[in-house]
Design brief:
MarR/SlyA-like; 3 strands; 3-stranded antiparallel β-sheet; 6 helices; Arc Repressor Mutant, subunit A; 68% helix; mainly alpha
């Protein structure tokens, strides 16, 4: 068996800082959502994806990919949101098996009302903590990591 390529002390320190920082950042955003946004962080992200799509509509499979969720997990999330009147499912025209997720007007109104609180939390816990250069480097690095993980997972 081949010897593992162990992390150097510096790499280990930065890796652990990344893990802790990510966990604490997501926890802070979740708490901010609990305090002022009537959508979970995951629901908010879903609504943003729909809001940016033509007709505020995406195929469920496309939405699952955008959110890095299993189709099963997305189905449960959409079920909850559909019961609240925030989204609805519609058949894909010309595709008997395809299903679209569509943001309702009520969903749009809730997203618009929630956005300022969400953005303020993102600024408070990340954007304003980093210099513009650090924020850009972080974004570029994570885009690279996401591409590689997406490629590896097929």
């Amino acid at each position: 068996m081949t010897e593992p390529r162990w992390l150097s002390d510096d790499q280990q320190r930065w890796w652990r800082a990344y893990l802790e920082g990510t966990a604490r950042f997501v926890d802070a955003l979740d708490r901010a959502h609990d305090d002022g946004v009537p959508l979970s962080l995951g629901e908010y992200h879903l609504m943003v994806q729909l809001s940016e799509a033509p007709g505020r509509t995406l195929r469920m499979s496309e939405l699952a990919d955008c959110l890095a969720l299993s189709r099963s997990r997305l189905t449960h999330t959409v079920d909850r949101m559909e019961r609240r009147g925030l989204v609805r499912r519609e058949p894909v025209p010309g595709d008997r098996r395809g299903v679209n997720c569509v943001m309702t007007d009520a969903g749009w109104d809730l997203l618009v009302a929630s956005a300022p609180h969400h953005v303020e939390a993102v600024r408070r816990y990340m954007v304003d903590v980093l210099t513009p250069e650090e924020f850009e480097v972080l974004g570029r690095a994570m885009a690279k990591v996401a591409r590689e993980a997406r490629r590896a997972l097929g």
